[in-house]
Amino acid sequence: MDTPRHILLAGATGLTGEHLLDRLLDEPTVERVLAPSRRALAEHSRLDNPVGELSELLPQLTGPIDTAFCCLGTTIKKAGTQSGFRAVDLDLVVAFAQRARELGARHLLVVSALGADPQATVFYNRIKGEMEEALRAQAWPQLTLARPSLLLGERSDFRLGERLAAPFAQLLPGKWRGIEANRLAHALWRLALEDGQGVRVVESDELRRLGR
């Protein structure tokens, strides 16, 4: 495919999304980044930033879009309930993808998770797997599913479990080793530049390599 020029980004205020937004705005080939968010982002001449709830903003978004990135994600603690978690990590992701397709996007890149499996007994992994399954059913010309392990980096919201696990995650082998959010963002951009068709699943060890 041609170099992405018109980008739609969901999750621009999150750990990975912030790094990815900076990366996109540093690319001279990118003409427009459409990044809806709950809170206003720093102004930039090539940034279009509608502010509000994403579910309400989706119908108002305008194209053209050639490439879409989805960095949406929450935690059960933050969502409050399993159904609240599902509403963000499954329903909202699928709705975002559908809208991106309607706006002309041909390549969707989504941050999923290590161990995503619709048959998993672990709720988190099962929802991520169901999300991947739903996106596959949309029949994208090019769909990239990134499955990072534990994300490393300074978040705006404190997560005790991640803070405690981070030192150990960096010692694990292969795809289980933690990955820095800025490295993941760089990997996503490199993957967006690759020609391809169909579905590509990229595990965490390959994401770390691509993000160097």
TrEMBL record:
Ranges where the NAD(P)-binding domain occurs: 11-137
Matches recorded under InterPro entries: NAD(P)-bd_dom (IPR016040), NAD(P)-bd_dom_sf (IPR036291)
Coiled coil: none
Protein name: Oxidoreductase
